[in-house]
Amino acid sequence: MKAAPSERAVERLLRALYSAVLYLLVPVTVYHLIWRGFRQVGYLQRWDERYAIYRAPPAAGECVWVHAVSVGEVNAAAPLVNALLAARPDLRLLVTTITPTGSSRVQALWGDRVDHVYLPYDLSGAVRRFLDHHRPRLALVLETELWPNLLFCCRDHGIPAYLVNARLSERSLRGYRVLRSLVARALRTLARVAAQSEADGERFVRLGAEPAAVTVLGNLKFDITVDDAARRTAAAFAGHSGGRMAWIAASTHPEEEAAVIAIHRRLRERWPTLLLLWAPRHPERFRAVTQACVEAGWRVATRQFTHWPDGNDDVFVIDTLGELAQFYACARVAFVGGSLQPVGGHNLLEPAALGVAVVTGPHLHNFSDIARQLDEAGALRIAADADAVGLAVAGLLADDQAHEAMAQAGLQLVKAGRGALARTMELIAPDLPPAP
After folding, report:
1. Nearest Cα to Cα of residue 246 among 380, 82, 397, 20
2. Which of 71, 185, 404, 415 has its CA 20 to 30 A from that of 104?
3. Which residues are catalytic?
4. Integer Cα distance of 3 and 83 in angstroms
């Protein structure tokens, strides 16, 4: 009777099949970069990093590596990166992203205080070159970035890897079903999975993580800090715009743009001087949104060209990166996009932390736990469709008492939810390189 194949042999087979498929898809990655580059020029740049080809010699010093896929994850990682910079200035921090907007956000937040490159595609050779070149002593991967070769190679290089601020929706869990056997083995290479919630932790266990390696630490997004920049922006904005009442449509996607225009048109029938602040999610939509507002008959100011709206502008398009949190402070009500279509929503805590009443659509699977907490606290209105979003925004513009109750509920919830940062720092402390 033949013996069952060993666990490591099964792993080698699954990794070989996975890697073979990825290598066959390399031409597709090139096509993808070109296709995205037509909409966002950053995708046409720095291709060598995406395949882990480096021209410069490796940097010196003990390295801790943080991976955050795009803008949202970079913002979530910011409290952790800032804490590491403050506590361990002797360490070299490497922050990787996948998107150009994430890269721009890293530069805006930290400049040359951290190193930054794009994470290479999950090709086994590229991942090994990446690890050999940068030589991280610790890997901190944000949220749901489960790349099998990346995790296996960290283990093979003796690099402890943590999945921090980890979240996994039911939809994502179902999406891993084709690779479930491989991903389950990759999860078991992690030192720890620091989940945002009990439900997230339970889903990681169902996906294959060792139950003893999963711990619930809360959400780093609650450790957001409201700095003086937001207050200065709000004061300057009010001075330039004549102190008019404003609402903000934040992180919107293309399919939501017509709804935002229709909502603003209806709101201005009741409040003719109402100002809309509009921050599209992706830079390639900045120009299209500006043009759509002009075609709607409105006078439009933009952050890049006019810097501030004046007393006659109807819409102010925030066509810059990294400033959304500051401009939340300028609005009375925030609609957070990615929620009127099945994108899954975006960060609801940023406006809540600034005392802004928050409205969202029904598609919130990426932020289901935060949305639930805000909703139960009375700090969020979840609208069923675009018409309902408009009614909710109008209600909060009109009702001072309801607006103040929501604003205070959001502030209190964010304050009570803090602490994930301290718990995460304590969790990873044993694997940080020793201080000199």
Report:
1. 397
2. 415
3. 73
4. 51
Q: What percent of the chain has pLDDT over 70?
A: 99
Give per-residue pLDDT as tens, 339-364.
999 999 999 999 999 999 999 999 99
Q: What pLDDT, in 10s, does the model give residues 64-122?
A: 999 999 988 999 999 999 999 999 999 999 999 999 999 999 999 999 999 999 999 99
Q: How many CA atoms lie within 13 A of 96 on its CB side?
A: 25
Q: What are φ and ψ of residue 320, in 5° steps? A: -130, 165
Please say if the pLDDT value at position 1 is more than 50. no
Nearest to residue 114, comparing CAs of 61, 191, 157, 70? 61
Spatial separation of the C-alpha atoms in residues 329 and 234, rounded to whole Å = 6
Q: Strand runs (DSSP E) across 59-149, as ranges?
A: 63-67, 92-97, 115-118, 136-142
> pTM of this prediction?
0.90
Q: Is 379 helix (H, G, I), strand (E, B) or coil?
A: coil
Beta bridge partners of 358: 334, 380
